[in-house]
Amino acid sequence: MSRDHVQSAERPAGASSASEEAPFLELLARGAAADAYEQPVLAARAQGQPAERIAALDRAKLLALRVRSELEGRRRREAELSALFETAHDLAGLRDLDAVLQAIVQRARSLLGTDVAYLSLNDPARGDTYMRVTEGSVAARFQQLRLGMGEGLGGLVAQTARPYVTDDYFKDERFQHTSSIDAGVRDEGLVAILGVPLMLGHHVIGVLFAADRRARVFEREQIALLGSFAALAAAAIDTANLLTETRSALAGLERANEIIRDRSAVIERASDVHDRLAELVLRGGGVHDVAAAVSEVLEGTVEFTEAHCAPPAALEASRAEGHAVRHQDDWIAAVAAGGELLGALVLRGHPGLDPVDQRTLERAAMVTSLLLLARRSAAEAEQRVRGELLDDLLDARDRDPRLLRERAARLHADLDATHVVLAARLDGPTADAEQEADARRRLWSAASHLAATRQGLAAARDGGTVLLLPLAPGDTATELARRTARQLGTAVHEAVTVGASGPVEHLATHPDAVAAAYAEGHRCLDALRLLGRSGDGAAAEDFGFLGLLLAGDRDIAGFVDRTIGQVVAYDERRGTDLVRTLDAYFACGMSPARTKDDLHVHVNTVAQRLERVGRLLGDDWQSPARALEIQLALRLHRLASPAQR
Q: What ranges make up the beta strands (E) of 375-501?
């Protein structure tokens, strides 16, 4: 028996010799394709080798293919595990959710070897689902699909929370087909589709898909692999949501912390201003000290202003509401006591004011009103003294100039300065005697306050108030009367009418002049009321020649001087006859032709003289009102100087 036959007899049945296995080991070593394993068997048959050899090669081939399949499975599982590990690593370092989801879809497509992979997410706000990430897609309509809940294969996955696969999408009747979904799938050319749910707890938040453009059967391992990717995708989404919530919470905490810091700073400022205001009150500070303290705390410019200087609408709104109100870029806080406006605190150029700072400004206004009331009650004694001095001047009781000056100096008044006597009276309707008395008290209080701030005197008399105020250089009795009417009216919230005398001087040496000036101012006050000018202010000089009737001392020379004084002075300087020409012009009915006959001059001479008069007296000198006053002044001038006639 030959050696081959002996070796063959010694091998167990079904075993292959090393010579039969060698070619297949070579194929396994170089990773040949599956069809290459047929070559050794085909070659043996072609060579006419024995049947036993061919059978042994067949058995070795099958064994090699099993080994090859096992190796490929292990390589595939290794690749899958590597992809899952990389995805988990991406998830652990999550920075961009879209990038992580895109990587998951790309790896799923690569490992499953599909044409397309995509991921859809549910939109609770709109009640549908939408494409979030696609890989391998070429159709725009497919990439922009929005599906109603329960529609398409994804809807079936979402409803059952289980994976679903279809070998042929358009022939599968297990799920609801819609025209929009079918159109998108048709545009993409998809046939076989596998979908697995994205789960957060027991809730489906979306679906991960793998699809081919040809019929295909997805194996169980592939379904499991896609499910693993879906779990990672769900974890990525959950992590991103948690990160978003955490960032939002942190941002909220930062904002809350900023608010707390701001509130703390504001409260500290409020506490600071409270301490400063308390100190000011205790040491007898004034309203401007309060304004300076609040300015420093609020880091702005705060000023105390009189009521008549503040914006009327904003001031009234602040008084009515009891709060500071915004006016353009400023804030106005009324300083009021009872129904009386004492002034306002104005925060300049600070439109954005914190509510706590607003209350600080309001508290400062309240402290200011308390200081003003305290000052007023302390000043009432001084006001009574002022009233007594004015009463003595009006009644001419004390004629010792030295004593009068000393009393006035203690009140910071100067009796040697030029003054105006003003008679003031309320003109608003009153319901009863009590209200009328209260209104008069408020008028006297406001007038006393005004007199004290202007270094004057005030007293109650004849149902109204009389004031003796110094006349500033360049000021007139008329302007002072009107200004006083406005200020008193604003202070008492009613119309106050004021009549003024002409300027009076040397009150210490001529105290009786005050009584005469008061009578003149009172007559002017009565004239204003008779003329229906309630709430206004005027002096006797405002009534033209009627002022002569109102003036107590009948200031004829003053009226003549105010009316034609410039013409008289011109004649005296130049030796001209303008006054005589004027007299003749009015006597001749304002006719230049008749005037030239009366004066025996040429008509051009009359015209030249009248032109000169116009330049001296103003263009309106021939108006009816001016002409009447000029004629009266001419008559009085003639009467005062008969020798000139």
A: 419-426, 457-461, 464-470, 496-500
Cα 334 versus chain centre, distance = 22
Find the angle CA(372)-CA(376)-CA(377) to the nearest 5 degrees.
120
Count of positions (residues) in the chain: 645
Question: Among 446, 440, 495, which Cα is nearest to 467's?
Answer: 446
Cα 202 to Cα 569: distance, rounded to the nearest angstrom = 113
Q: Which residue has the tokens 């009102």?
A: 625
Backbone angles phi, psi at 46, to 5 degrees: -65, -30
209/194 Cα distance (integer angstroms)? 5
If phi over 0 gives left and psi between -120 and 50 gives alpha, with beta otherwise, what is residue 37?
alpha
Give backbone dihedrals phi and psi of 334, rounded to 5 degrees, phi first: -65, 140
66: Cα within 13 Å, side-chain hemisphere: 6
Is 349 within 8 Å of 329 (Cβ atoms)? yes
Residue 233 to residue 90: CA distance in whole angstroms: 11
Query: What is the DSSP-derived secondary structure letter of residue 642?
Result: G
Using alpha carbons, select from 426, 457, 553 the residue that is nearest to residue 502.
553
pLDDT at 1 over 50: no
- Sheet containing 301-305: order of strands: 301-305, 340-348, 330-337, 325-327
CA-based max dimension of the chain: 191
Burial of residue 436, with CB atoms counted within 10 A of its CB: 0-12 exposed, 13-18 middle, 19 or more buried: middle
CA angle 527, 532, 537 (to 5 degrees): 60
Contact in structure between 506 and 513 (CB atoms under 8 Å): yes
Chain-centre distance of CA 293, in angstroms? 26
Phi first, then psi, for residue 211 (nearest 5°) are -145, 150
CB 336 within 8 A of CB 320: no
Average the pLDDT over each of 91-95, 116-120, 235-239, 425-429 and give the range with the smallest value.
91-95
Rounded-to-integer distance, Cα 10 and Cα 94, Å: 65
Cα distance between residue 645 and residue 626, in whole Å: 23
CA 319 to chain centre: 23
Report the relative pairing of strands 464-470 and 457-461 from DSSP bridges.
antiparallel
Q: Residue 516 in contact with residue 553, Cβ under 8 Å?
A: yes
Q: Which of 240-249, 330-339, 368-377, 551-560 has the lowest mean pLDDT?
A: 551-560
| Amino acid residing at 55 | A
How many Å apart are CA 309 and CA 344, to the nearest integer? Answer: 9
Pairing mode, strands 537-539 and 496-500: parallel
Q: Token pair 């009515």 is at which residue?
A: 320
State how far the Cα of 393 lies from the Cα of 628, in Å rounded to an integer.
37
The DSSP secondary-structure symbol of 361 reads: H
Side-chain-side CA neighbours of residue 472 (13 Å)? 8
Cα distance from N-terminal residue to C-terminal residue, the chain? 189
The structure's pTM equals: 0.37
Burial annotation 595-630 (CB, 10 A radius, 16+ → b, else e)? bbebbebeeeebeebbebbeebbeeebbeeebeebb
Q: What is the pLDDT of residues 563-579, one digit of tens each?
A: 888 889 998 898 898 98
